[in-house]
Amino acid sequence: MKMAEEHFETETLKHIGNRLDYIYSIARTYNSDNPELMDAIASLAAVANMYTKSKLEELKGEKTTTSPQGFIVSELGNSYSRMKEYEKGKDMEFPSWKL
Questions:
Q1: Which helix (H) or strand (E) holds 82?
Q2: What letters, b where the CB count within 10 A reaches 16 and e where it falls short, cover 8-35?
Q3: Selection from 79, 89, 93 nearest residue 37 by Cα
Q4: Can you spell out the DSSP letters for 14-57?
Q5: Are 83 and 54 a contacting pair, CB within 8 Å?
Q6: I need a surface site. Which of 37, 74, 75, 87 has the fewest CB within 10 A?
Q7: Per-residue confidence (pLDDT) for residue 99, from 0 to 100
Q8: What whole-number distance in Å separates Cα of residue 80 and Cα of residue 1?
Q9: CA–CA separation, 82 vs 36, rounded Å?
């Protein structure tokens, strides 16, 4: 039986991880500009980076990261909460229709 071809390459995953580290760093550095947005961006970058690290470990046959799923769920919850709060604020700004 033929092995399934991998969708990701090790070097590409490392490149993706570096970009996500950069995005996370910028979001944390400029957090005071727009805290809610930057927190959401940082959390999403952390989620994507954890998935990238987990996939990279899988490709290498290593398992050093503990509980990547728990971390992802937790960080994603943070971004989700930030977006729900943002959405609530936008709903209040929307003018009511008058006929």
A1: helix 68-93
A2: eeeeebeebbeebeebbeebeeeeeeee
A3: 79
A4: HHHHHHHHHHHHHHHHTGGGSHHHHHHHHHHHHHHHHHHHHHHH
A5: no
A6: 87
A7: 59
A8: 42
A9: 6
| Residue 82 structure tokens | 């930030």
Measured in whole angstroms, the distance separating CA 80 from the mean position of its chain's CA atoms is: 11
Q: Which residues contact 63 (CB under 8 A, 6 or more apart)?
A: 57
- For the record, the structure tokens of 79 come out as 């971004």
pTM of the full structure: 0.80
Task: Say if residues 50 and 69 touch (Cβ distance below 8 Å).
Answer: no
**DSSP code for 1:** -
Residues 62-89 have pLDDT tens digits of 888 889 999 999 999 999 998 888 888 8
The residue with tokens 């729900």 is 84
CA distance 23 to 33: 15
